[in-house]
Amino acid sequence: MATTLKMVAEKAGVSIRTAGRALSGSGPVKAEVARRVLAAARELHYVPNAAARSLKQRACRIVGVISEANLQNECGLRRISLLEGALREAGRHTLLGALPESFEELMKLLRSWTGIAESVIFLAWPSSWPVEKLHALPQRFLFIDCELESAEFDRIETDRTSGVAAAVTELLRAGRRRIARVGTDHAAGRRTGFEQALAEAGDGVESRFISSSGLEFADGFAAGRALEEFRADAVFFDTDRMALGFYRYASEKGISIPGTVAVAGFDDDAAGAFAIPALTTVAHPDTETVRRAVEKALSPAESEPELIVYPARLVRRESIGIPNNPHQQETGK
Amino acid sequence: MATTLKMVAEKAGVSIRTAGRALSGSGPVKAEVARRVLAAARELHYVPNAAARSLKQRACRIVGVISEANLQNECGLRRISLLEGALREAGRHTLLGALPESFEELMKLLRSWTGIAESVIFLAWPSSWPVEKLHALPQRFLFIDCELESAEFDRIETDRTSGVAAAVTELLRAGRRRIARVGTDHAAGRRTGFEQALAEAGDGVESRFISSSGLEFADGFAAGRALEEFRADAVFFDTDRMALGFYRYASEKGISIPGTVAVAGFDDDAAGAFAIPALTTVAHPDTETVRRAVEKALSPAESEPELIVYPARLVRRESIGIPNNPHQQETGK
DNA sequence: CTGAAAGCGCTTACAG
DNA sequence: CTGAAAGCGCTTACAG
Q: Residues A181-188: what's their mean pLDDT?
């Protein structure tokens, strides 16, 4: 079926080892012989068998990437895309897997990757899953932005806390006094950032956390009602997609953004820059994160696990502005 | 380092073959012996080496997926995500690669996948690249929505032509008479669909193609000027992202959608459903496409290459409506 | 500069 | 029901 090195060697009239040397350049071969081997290889469409090489070299040059379960946001995609590019540049291939529904299924998936992927990069990890059980597997694991509590593995994190705090501070500076956050319960970094900024805000500021089941457009839209009830004049959404879902709600109800409600999001999706008004957001340090993750994934796992944190960046746009009808301005700074 | 089958066998006090049978269930083993082997395997954290298995079985259970070069749109992501899920269900792993800049780099990538990926699914293929050269490689290739001319490979296509025609017909039905299409030059299916719908429109309809360099938000925004010059009262954009980029242009210039200009897009991005006004678009038959692609990828490549076409579906929303200031209504139907 | 041998860790096919 | 042998296609380490 497929051409083997042996077939090339026979055609070129040399030993299999000489053919191997000529093709890989791993040793001295007479120029004339090398030419003959190359010609034979081309003619037979020879391509080396990666499985055989992996077996012998005990290195498969494949890195696994576990993405979020329902991979549909631009932010996760950008990261996968950057990882793939960086890994390829490092001579590695990218094996993609979405996070399974259950821990057992994940273990099964990772077991099936043994001898295929030497390292696995997680882009998502449910906080309730027993991460220490991964030690039973031979791969090297690392976690990007998984907000893992355990220090047993390498972790690379965006500083969500200060990113969110910067966005909320921006809302306060614009004179907002009834500030909500919409997001999921388990987003520890965002919660802390939100609370931190409010703690420094002083008196006269009301806040509320509105819990959403997901992070999608529909979840932001669904939060509209609770935001109205709270009479929010500013909202921080855990994702840009939620923020843009709320844009739709506001439009249907005739709520002006940022006149009545100022809005900030998180992720820096391309759609936000073109939304009306353009969405103020917090951008991930993706380039740094990915570069470091690939470095780590390729280095031997000997050193102590590290926690590496990169800062997020506030992207100021139009969705935070002067309120139409500023209330309690006198109590503000 | 990693535990081998031999180590498990020794610990359990059986032959390597018996251990193998017990673990894979591939033959009869006495219950008592099987239990001993299982216990040894668990204790030693044994996981089989996939490279060795691939080598012996001459099947690696990995399917490669080549995505667009700048993987940033939701539509491509959805497809990758669906492919990954369908492949996993079929017991396969997904190797991801972004389309390289040059054909030579692609060949290099595919060669490095030999013995790793047995089939490769293309989600993008530049029309100018010599697809026939892929025959020199041992993998099985198939193409999803690549608008490939060559019939040498299996192709699965969305019927873009009738999808676009349906959208344009919808624009005509709403009384529009100056209809533009914004997209890239090489989108053959979309061009044909556009022309087909206009051919049936009869007299009194003006049309224009506005060529864009890309398919992103910024490209749709940039087309705004040319659309104004043409005095378009309707536009079909090759992607939803472009359409939403134009939303921003229209907002800045005070152009009403759909009052002054009706808009339709292609891809059914989630953002379109929440845009203001909600975007009329054409949806890909992703589920069918992906199911068929996986079926094909796993079946032996013996049969003749096929062209399989699935219909696109028009999603009617708010961005096509009654014009504010209908002109030439009397000449319309 | 070149070749014969051994082995990576499994599984297939055979013999007990 | 169990084991000894052979081999997948390459590469490492050695001997010429």
A: 93
